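Hey L., structure's done. Input below.
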Amino acid sequence: MAFYDISNSERIAMTNTAIAARQTLTERWRALDRSEADPWSERAAQAARLLAGLKTIVDFGCGTMTLERYLDKDVVYRPVDVVARDQRTIVCDFNTEPLPNVDADGAACLGVIEYLFDVRTFLTRLAKFYPVAAVSYCVASEDGAVDARRANAWVNDLTRPEIEALFSDVGFEIQCSVDVGAGQILWLLRSA
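Output:
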């Protein structure tokens, strides 16, 4: 059963249990299908435009590999996710394993940060290994409401100033940002 086929209250309970155990909700990702990811196609298209000119891109949290559809045909695409999406996928749970150092000119992290317990460590490794990154995040509201976030299996609640301060702290400079809707922002980051 797909994650969004169960009730909000059940999804919130599952997420809270995962937070308490600091475990990734892999059930959420095993049932991911293309129709669930399609609403984020424009985000992937914008990320591809931001990363234009790179020869090799690693896609952390590749999901249904939407980004690959928008990259130039000569770009080498390297998918990484918590479950295998095809034979190329490097399987890695970012909550229990270090971010792998995949040979690439740049990285994409679209719809990933919300699911991480240790955002700082993830971003630190990202800045260390990749000079350019397109990173999205659905920022938390200032009012502290979290039920809607938990219903999406999101385990952290960073505001825009907080995530942007983290980018700076780990050595990234923000080159630009784009509002991609529904509170989600896409940043182009470069290692300082």
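The beta strands are 56-60, 76-81, 90-91, 106-109, 132-138, 172-181, 184-191. Residues 3-191 form a domain with the Rossmann fold fold (CATH 3.40.50.150).

-- N.
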